[in-house]
Amino acid sequence: xxxxxxxxxxxxxxxxxxxxxxxxxxxxxxxxxxxxxxxxxxxxxxxxxxxxxxxxxxxxxxxxxxxxxxxxxxxxxxxxxxxxxxxxxxxxxxxxx
Length: 97
Prior knowledge:
The structure is a single chain. By secondary structure, the protein is an alpha+beta fold. The chain is built from one helix and four strands. The protein has a four-stranded mixed β-sheet with strand order 1-4-3-2, with helices on one face.
């Protein structure tokens, strides 16, 4: 009997359902995008903002309304996202919210 190296690994069978977890980055429009997705899928998004978070002290004041993490349930899965907090555009954080 021929055995493969994969036979000894904990790899799910090809017919097992795997759930992807997409993470979307936006340039200050995360809230707008997730509200749109929520209207399409009929669910409510959950947002965590920079304001009142440990990161608030690390970022410029104009980043307060930026989304650090958004999540939206779609069926048995979720999509996640955030505003890109790595680089201000045009020298300033520009988040809509």
